[in-house]
Amino acid sequence: MTRWTFWIPLGLFAAFCGLAAYQLTQPKDEFIASTMIGKPVPDFALRPAHDERPGLTIANLRDGKPKLLNIWASWCVPCIAEAPYLEALRAQGAEVVGVAIRDRPADVSRFLATYGNPYSRIGADDLSEVQLSIGSSGVPETFVVDGNGIITYQHIGDVRAEHVPMLLQALAEAGQ
Amino acid sequence: MIAELGLAALWIAAALAVLQLVGGAVAQRDPESDLAKLVRPAAIIQGVLAAFSFVMLLYLFAVTDLSVKLVATNSHSDKPMIFKLAGAWGNHEGSMLLWITVMAMAGGLIGLVERRLPEKTMMATLAAQAFVAMGFYAFILLSSNPFERLPQPAIEGMGLNPLLQDIGLAFHPPTLYFGYVGLSVAFSFAVGALLTRKVGPDFARAMRPWVLGAWIFLTLGITAGSYWAYYELGWGGWWFWDPVENASLMPWLAATALLHSVSVLAARDALRAWTIMLGVVAFSMSMLGTFLVRSGILTSVHAFAVDPERGSFILVLLALYIGGALLLFALRAGTVAEGERFAIASREGALVFNNVMLSAILGIVLLGTLYPLLTEAFDVRVSVGPPYFNPVGAIFVIPMLMVMAVGPLLRWRNDNFHRVKLPMAMVAGIMLAVLALVLVLGSYGWLPMLGLAVSIGLAIGSFLPLRGRNLLRVPTATWGMVIAHFGIAVALFGMASESAFSEERLAAVEVGDSTQVGPWTVVLDQVAPVAGPNWTAIEGRLSAQYGDGAAIDLRPQSRNFWAPPQETTESTLATRWNGQLYAVIGNQASDGRWQLRLWWKPFVTLIWYGGILVALGGLLALIGRLRTDLKRRSAKSRNAERKLEEAEV
């Protein structure tokens, strides 16, 4: 080893720090986007999750009208938090359909009676099949589906006040 | 009150670190000053206080104190006690507290027991240790306070990542941390030695137990992590070259190189600058790993606490410590004399070769890990995986393993390859025979075949140093080396066998159907829902039969956790002496059939048994070293000391 070689590690390290510092200041995608965006919802048919609303099938998603597809469950705590905002979305003209994950009819009814029922249809997904087939990894999640059953947007986590205008816009875009 | 106690202890510990740094610096000019006398006590009390603080955090998790933010976000009153406790370190803040606790306790231990180093070097080492610790104290106290209270106590906790609710993973991070932090001690030793220009056998012998200890923990941590990923993620693989895995592998590679070069330094007073360099690099890799995992700068399946602000903080620490140490190295390494010379055909020569190969592998892994970061700067997203790492790594791993089989047979300083001709020819012959046999017999990839051949040669070669010796009088450290090298051979055999002979079957079956994979016949008897303390699952009940043997009951599950909501795959394994059957249950198809994924993996378990053997070898070496250290205190002359050392490496 000659003397100048002792400086090589420092040089390499400085280059790394520069690169890392640059990367840290770059905006990052917060979520890993579903690979299903832009793809059609696979075929499915779910029985009603409780007595008051009809079930959900793929035909309902292909009726020409864009919809919000909300994945939720009565045992899910963040779902309570998002309930008023789903209601707000419905009040502003969005059609919301639900998929209840691993739930019992009585629990579904009790949840909807307590926190409001924004859904036009709710299918019961007892084995998480539909949930997994559209690329959702947890509850709650909300998808924007256009009139032909194509997923155009995925929202991971609960819907909060600040997401309402965004989802309405995504819905409007899906309708064009 | 408990949380505030923990926080107060941490602040005082941080203040003691400042005292330790100042005292250590003053000691360089005036070793007799009052401040210099405070350095050792400061290190010891700092260790005690940090430990106290960590115990307070454990207590808060044990009682699920939901007024503490960290507990509320990472625990749940329904969780089993063991996972409540594991929750204390299964998150960013808690794991940083564990890090600083281990580091402070290590510093305290040096202050308590280390008497071999010249006092000045010792003071410089403790000052360096305090300097590193201060950054981490600042990080915890200013940006990651684990004791932060909520304005309103939460009603219920948010749980722990279900992937982490596994006994293996609960203890995997602390194991790795002991390794990482042990390397911080080696780093402080290196910096202390550079500051006082005292690099020699004494320094190497003082540093070695720390490197050995860190290396044992890293070995265990990587082994456990690999097994966890294998059975918990349900992908059927055992190593994915994921950035997080690489983050633990890189310090291990550096520590392995350091371990060998520190032995050369201790025995022969050679490789001075190189050993110092590796001491700096090994800890740099620990910190780099921490940075990559926590900054969110790389995407990984199991990175956590994605937070650019914390990333910036760690980057600053990284620049300060690693940059500072490398600058010091550049300025001082030239003044640390080369040490003694040796011929290429010698024990040192083989160890240098091993060091160069290990460094090359480290370089390759580092490059592969950082490459996506580099290309992303130019808006190109790539992912670097096994197609890069496996063949490129093999270029260096294979020759290294071959030299490994021969190196321990060579004499120090100057030897003749003729002397080890016979064992070399024997090992080479066996390897060629195995290679020829497997090439003739099967249509398998050449790389796993080569791996099999090399592993057999190495397995034999690793025992050759015992040839012709009285086994009862072989030093413990030598046994350690033999077992560690044999462990590498065992692990390699498992890896090669798994990659060459695994069979996979993805089947859609109805209840009652049977499927074949390798020598196994698997019948799906039933599918039933089951519930646990905080999850529900669909469980497949399989009976698996090896050949004509008795049926074994297997129950793979697809689990759903609700706090937080997440789905995990619980694979099941049927282990036989010659391999494992690996079963995963998937979803039900629309026609009512169930997806069943089965693998037959011959000798796969040897990968982890090998890892455990390697760690065991390290442990024996450590015990042997500590015992001779005690003996050495009575060894009078320097010459006698060197003889003792050379007899053992």
UniProtKB/TrEMBL annotation, chain A:
This is DsbE family thiol:disulfide interchange protein. Keywords: Cytochrome c-type biogenesis, Disulfide bond, Redox-active center. It is found in: Cell envelope. It comes from Pontixanthobacter gangjinensis. Pfam families: Redoxin. Residues 35-176 form the Thioredoxin domain. One of its GO terms (biological process) is cytochrome complex assembly. Its main location: other. It comes from the Bacteria. One of its GO terms (molecular function) is disulfide oxidoreductase activity. CDD domains: TlpA_like_DsbE (cd03010). InterPro entries: Periplasmic_diS_OxRdtase_DsbE, Redoxin, Thioredoxin-like_sf, Thioredoxin_domain, Thioredoxin_ResA/DsbE_sf. GO terms for cellular component: outer membrane-bounded periplasmic space. Belongs to the thioredoxin family. DsbE subfamily.
TrEMBL record, chain B:
Pfam families: CcmF_C (PF16327), Cytochrom_C_asm (PF01578). The chain crosses the membrane at residues 6-26, 38-62, 96-113, 125-143, 177-197, 209-229, 249-267, 274-293, 313-331, 352-371, 391-410, 422-440, 446-466, 478-496, 606-626. It is found in: Cell inner membrane. Residues 315-625 form the Cytochrome c-type biogenesis protein CcmF C-terminal domain. GO terms for biological process: cytochrome complex assembly. Keywords: Cell inner membrane, Cell membrane, Cytochrome c-type biogenesis, Lyase, Membrane, Transmembrane, Transmembrane helix. It comes from the Bacteria. It is a multi-pass membrane protein. One of its GO terms (cellular component) is plasma membrane. Belongs to the CcmF/CycK/Ccl1/NrfE/CcsA family. This is Heme lyase CcmF/NrfE family subunit. It comes from Pontixanthobacter gangjinensis. The lineage of its organism: Bacteria, Pseudomonadati, Pseudomonadota, Alphaproteobacteria, Sphingomonadales.
